[in-house]
């Protein structure tokens, strides 16, 4: 079993993380159970219903068998129903979820053939929605994960029950997906019973791009000390069933921690392994037209063998590539069928790959435009193809780029990498990419040049003091490494001239400064936000429950005013910002929720 262990013991509350990679053709799940003092280890689910015992395969086909609109069975077991007319099969359904921006061809091919990839996405079973298919499949893999965990972890049943309502669910998704697809998956997770509500989904579901997840897998599995140095630029390409996701990274630091930064926006193109199968279908259908084998189902049987064997063996050198689809009695020499076998020539084989390869190369070239990289790391099932590797090697080798592959099969790198990614944040911490802080209003200081320049913005507060807005109070400096429980406590005091009867909404903008030199100000002397100052997020909440804690006070010059004291606790350590209020009511500490509304990405 491919286990990804970490060296640092975990310190903190017991946690369960489950990471899903629902691929177009294959899916896999990984998980990690951490408790205080344990060495976190990411494991894959390697036993699925219907799998021959001991096969240890971590991947299952992403298919659901339906009968009269009802899901009957999924994954390995559903394969038995593929040829049964009484059942309808939902397959490649992930392609229905791709946004329109991904459905069209991105650009005319610049390299090699000008053929455009065409594929017909199989229809969903009649009367069944895409949401229903996802719910059925997610319920199934979630249940199988629970069973595997319970059966392979000492005391597993009790641990799962104890942690399931707090477990973190990580989902690997294509780079090209945006919030619409994420919302879709959250809804499906609610309906599949993985989380209980919208709020619970926001809190517990994390998304990571398949490419980024793959990077974490590769770094864990490969001997990266030999090539990963500060300043090295490399690309990772996840060649899946339907999409090829590529991301360009620069290594900002290799020691003591690896810090990677995305150099440009990643690329996502539809050119995965199913396009090769689709091209092979067309080739065979053309060849067999008029023969006793022209029937669609017979050709699909041939494609099944082609997909599992012929395609995977092809490295560009074989002149004869056989597809053994039937019994010895099946011979039709005029159509090249001999003893249940049909062969494709080297040229025919190569042409089935052409369109997918052209698009993959174009997508990588687009990503690398203007950048020189030493390494292109290939992961994903289609990335195992010796022919694809060779063709990519031909193009990128000329540019001095080495194609790197990991020795262990990378077909499900995204699933394992997604859990590794989350676990790393727990045990290693995350480096701040920018300076993070807030906008505060200090008392006017007539000796401070910055204050003098902003005199025009000065105002008198309810406590009678002169204040200047726009001062940047830095909470976290760039590159500071935050561990999982890192949080900031912000002490707030709101001033009111008269006793308020209602309290307004609390809203605290959290700002990110991406400039190279530190800044003391958020705004320029005219009050305009500095160009490199961005809104990271806004922490918001209802102050009404704090009304009873209002107190009257006197300002430095005797002005009486009302004030509200409370603390805002913001945790930065995980992958997501979380915040809550804390205030005193009499002698007891009270707490309330705050929501975090994302601002522009930094
Ligand atoms: N050795 C191989 N040679 C060629 N193709 C292969 C090989 N092994 C697997 N494949 C192909 O890889 C594809 C599956 O890869 P993978 O499991 O990474 O995709 P996926 O996660 O289902 O798809 P996506 O990431 O696009 O949603 C299939 O099309 C399969 O035929
Ligand atoms: Mg994939």
TrEMBL record:
Keyword Cytoplasm: no
GO MF terms, alphabetically ordered: ATP binding; ATP-dependent protein folding chaperone
Cited InterPro entries: ATPase_NBD (IPR043129), Hsp_70_fam (IPR013126)
Keywords linked to the UniProt accession: ATP-binding, Nucleotide-binding
UniProt xrefs under Pfam families: HSP70
CDD domains the UniProt entry points to: ASKHA_NBD_HSP70
Protein name: Hsp70 protein
Species the sequence originates in: Serendipita indica (strain DSM 11827) (Root endophyte fungus)
Lineage: Eukaryota, Fungi, Dikarya, Basidiomycota, Agaricomycotina
